[in-house]
Amino acid sequence: MIKPQDRFFSEGQGYFGPRENPITETHCNVWDWDRLRMVKVKGTAKLFPPDEDVEVPILAQFADYLSPKVRAITVDNDGLLAGVSTDPEEDDTLFVAYLPFSILESLADCRTIQHSKLQELDRLGPGVDLSSYEDEFGIPHKVAFKFNPLEKPLRLQMAWDELNLLKSLPPHPNIVPFDRVVLEDVESRVIGFTTKYISGETLANPKVPFRFEWMQQLTRLVDFLNLELGVMHQDIAPRNLLIDPDTHKILLFDFDWAASGKKRLLDGRDDVTGVVFTLYELITNDTHFTSIPHWDRNMDMVQNISEWTCNRELDSDVSTFRCFLNEWVAMRKSDGDMERYLNAPNRLTWPDLPTAPDYDVPFELGKTSDGEPIWTTGPRFRRTAMEKGQYCFRWERPTQSKAKNDTY
């Protein structure tokens, strides 16, 4: 089940007047990862000050009780429910023009699965479900289904890059294997992908003992990705490291921040630095460095700490881990490391994210002062796309928690 603290996020506050005026009408769009829908929360500036996201805990009180038809709720200055609206014009969900599989040459060799063939077993986190399906031979598979239901340029780019990267990675004993491309059933558009489901714990659980051999596996894997394939994971962290209960090997997953060469390469997110902070956190269980932006972090912050207080079960002394880490960092940070990464002999590449042809369809944005329609193209509300007769894949689903009999 999705953790309560991860279920909602707010897109901010929209003020219809001066935000300093407590009676200014205020709208806040809140996304619900459990029900995969947007709900508009309406009130006043007195209740919704800028950047405080008060709307999230307010909606959380009512979300499981709202009918699927509800597009907006109104609350009073005490945060109590004052009204609901089912008006489709209140729905500010943006249209996502998923790309047709037939035009994506880079994915042509991938196996596919229709969304309707996936049976939901659990909701592991925002945009990740545990699912199962039977393949063409009737063999059952349990998979992690990863998807992006949001029309945000960065999220669309990350989803495209991760899918193309994962399908291109050679099989590796320390990487969660790619499985299939997921297509919606009506027009065979790409809406996500599956990977093999690994039932083991992540290293984010401090109760999982940490082995020296896993440290060795991780550094070898990072060397392979960086120096052989020219790939920078850019999100090495305990939460992205699984222990395979069958092989007892460490497995890396979640490549949505990954870079290929200079493409999407970010300052402060190199994998060597990621390994250093990961090992420090694994040994000490000190997570406060995770709150520091990557661009403000450097590995000396933890490497210069003379003693790493051990707060996890280890199979070797802390000094053994640190000595190995220091030698590996010295080797990787020697002259020419970035050049070796940029000139990796088997660097993976893939096409840029195509612009969906759906966005070329013009729609009326408004009217001029003379009453003439203003036509434009590009991103649009889902309700606008539906008015234009464009196909919209709908993600909405019931809450995973116990069904409620009463709805507003």
From TrEMBL:
<keyword id="KW-0779">Telomere</keyword>
<protein>
    <recommendedName>
        <fullName>EKC/KEOPS complex subunit BUD32</fullName>
        <ecNumber>2.7.11.1</ecNumber>
    </recommendedName>
</protein>
<feature type="domain" description="Protein kinase">
    <location>
        <begin position="118"/>
        <end position="408"/>
    </location>
</feature>
<dbReference type="InterPro" id="IPR000719">
    <property type="entry name" value="Prot_kinase_dom"/>
</dbReference>
<comment type="function">
    <text>Component of the EKC/KEOPS complex that is required for the formation of a threonylcarbamoyl group on adenosine at position 37 (t(6)A37) in tRNAs that read codons beginning with adenine. The complex is probably involved in the transfer of the threonylcarbamoyl moiety of threonylcarbamoyl-AMP (TC-AMP) to the N6 group of A37. BUD32 has ATPase activity in the context of the EKC/KEOPS complex and likely plays a supporting role to the catalytic subunit KAE1. The EKC/KEOPS complex also promotes both telomere uncapping and telomere elongation.</text>
</comment>
<keyword id="KW-0158">Chromosome</keyword>
<comment type="subunit">
    <text>Component of the EKC/KEOPS complex composed of at least BUD32, CGI121, GON7, KAE1 and PCC1; the whole complex dimerizes.</text>
</comment>
<dbReference type="GO" id="GO:0004674">
    <property type="term" value="F:protein serine/threonine kinase activity"/>
</dbReference>
<dbReference type="GO" id="GO:0005524">
    <property type="term" value="F:ATP binding"/>
</dbReference>
<dbReference type="GO" id="GO:0000781">
    <property type="term" value="C:chromosome, telomeric region"/>
</dbReference>
<dbReference type="InterPro" id="IPR008266">
    <property type="entry name" value="Tyr_kinase_AS"/>
</dbReference>
<dbReference type="InterPro" id="IPR011009">
    <property type="entry name" value="Kinase-like_dom_sf"/>
</dbReference>
